[in-house]
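Postdoc handover notes: sequence design on the structure in folder B. Input tokens:
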């Protein structure tokens, strides 16, 4: 099945893309997608514990399961003032 990944800020810099469509196994978890991304973007591991995730614009955990055509957003914590 195919999903779309969107990355933001430092995650975009590390991964080298802002949006990408990938093929994953049926009902894969977010953490499995992250492991695959980490193979091509080893710097991602360094910030992994602070990342936030959303599927179709709703926050989720690394254990969330993905469905066909989902959009997985990966971004660092947002700070502001």
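Designed sequence:
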């Amino acid at each position: 099945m195919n999903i779309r990944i969107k990355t933001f800020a430092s995650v975009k810099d590390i991964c080298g893309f802002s949006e990408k469509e990938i093929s994953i196994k049926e009902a894969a978890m977010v953490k499995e997608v992250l492991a695959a991304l980490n193979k091509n973007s080893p710097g991602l591991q360094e910030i992994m514990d602070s990342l936030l995730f959303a599927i179709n614009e709703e926050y989720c955990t690394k254990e969330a399961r993905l469905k066909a055509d989902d959009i997985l957003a990966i971004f660092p914590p947002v700070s502001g003032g």
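Context for whoever picks this up: The helical segments are 9-15, 30-40, 44-47. Don't rerun without checking with the PI first.
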